[in-house]
Inverse folding.
């Protein structure tokens, strides 16, 4: 047995040699770690959702600078001088790493700008944009969120715990949602949309005047017209929502287009009363046209129909659907 202190990392020291001290570069390590770990966090929060990839959490320790091993000086006077040199080295490194951090920040700002262009403007500042959950809200529940409504309503929808609560958000905020749709429709400039915009505005007025049935009927038929006029190439694909059929594959589209057309698939769900299928209670184009009933016709469904038409026209205004 021996009382001699063993080196912390024996593999780093050759037999017969004195262990070299690990010299901390005060301040620089923290800057380096903050820069790189901050970059990963920004990727996780902004770019990853847009690209539908998951960037795993990486501990900050993974970004620490490697230890700097310098020869140990036994003479006290020289050792003090050496420590002073080390501090000067650390001081000289800190501005370099700070500049590196600023450069990374500029790069990430550019990434954030690119991501914002992927998302519609009414999503800017919204939290909780997780694609799996968002896809379910758009594709299965049929709640349109692209272009309209305003950011706070989008946030309220995403924060709601389940489908019934999300539908209730639309029902409670129907007046402000109609205001958002009016504002969007009034801003569109493309000539090819002029034939549909007045009818969307009439559906809004009908609902404001207390006629949800008329508003929903007009919105449902206008939806079909918008799709057949502006989405001819993809009409059959995005409306082919058959029982036990294939789910619409949103990976075939850009982010904006995918999120705008997803509620169309929900609205075109097929059902057959001859087979005993119940009339859908959520907004459905086929049910609006072929199964007029209290189950289908109501104010919330009228709002959803107007939202969907406005959202598709917003997409046509801002980019040509493919």
């Amino acid at each position: 047995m021996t009382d001699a202190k063993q080196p912390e990392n024996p593999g780093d020291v050759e037999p017969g040699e004195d262990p070299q001290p690990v010299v901390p570069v005060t301040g620089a390590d923290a800057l380096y770690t903050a820069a790189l770990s901050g970059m990963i966090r920004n990727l996780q929060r902004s770019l990853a959702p847009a690209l539908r990839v998951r960037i795993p959490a990486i501990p900050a320790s993974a970004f620490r600078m490697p230890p700097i091993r310098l020869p140990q000086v036994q003479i006290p006077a020289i050792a003090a001088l050496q420590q002073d040199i080390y501090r000067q080295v650390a001081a000289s490194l800190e501005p370099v790493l700070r500049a590196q951090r600023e450069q990374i920040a500029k790069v990430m700002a550019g990434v954030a700008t690119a991501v914002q262009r992927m998302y519609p403007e009414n999503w800017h500042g919204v939290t909780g944009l997780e694609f799996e959950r968002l896809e379910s809200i758009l594709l299965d529940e049929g709640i349109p969120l692209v272009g309209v409504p305003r950011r706070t309503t989008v946030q309220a929808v995403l924060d709601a715990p389940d489908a019934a609560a999300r539908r209730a958000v639309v029902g409670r905020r129907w007046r402000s949602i109609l205001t958002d749709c009016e504002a969007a429709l009034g801003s569109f400039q493309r000539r090819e949309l002029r034939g549909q915009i007045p009818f969307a505005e009439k559906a809004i007025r009908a609902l404001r005047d207390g006629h949800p049935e008329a508003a929903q009927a007009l919105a449902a038929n206008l939806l079909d017209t918008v799709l057949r006029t502006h989405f001819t190439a993809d009409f059959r694909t995005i409306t082919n929502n058959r029982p036990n059929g294939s789910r619409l594959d949103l990976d075939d589209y850009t982010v904006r287009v995918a999120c705008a057309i997803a509620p169309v698939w929900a609205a075109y769900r097929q059902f057959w009363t001859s087979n005993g299928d119940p009339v859908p209670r959520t907004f459905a184009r086929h049910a609006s046209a072929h199964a007029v009933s209290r189950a289908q016709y109501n104010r919330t469904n009228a709002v959803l129909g107007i939202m969907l038409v406005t959202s598709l026209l917003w997409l046509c205004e801002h980019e040509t659907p493919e």
User: Anything to note?
Assistant: DSSP finds twelve helices and two strands in the chain.
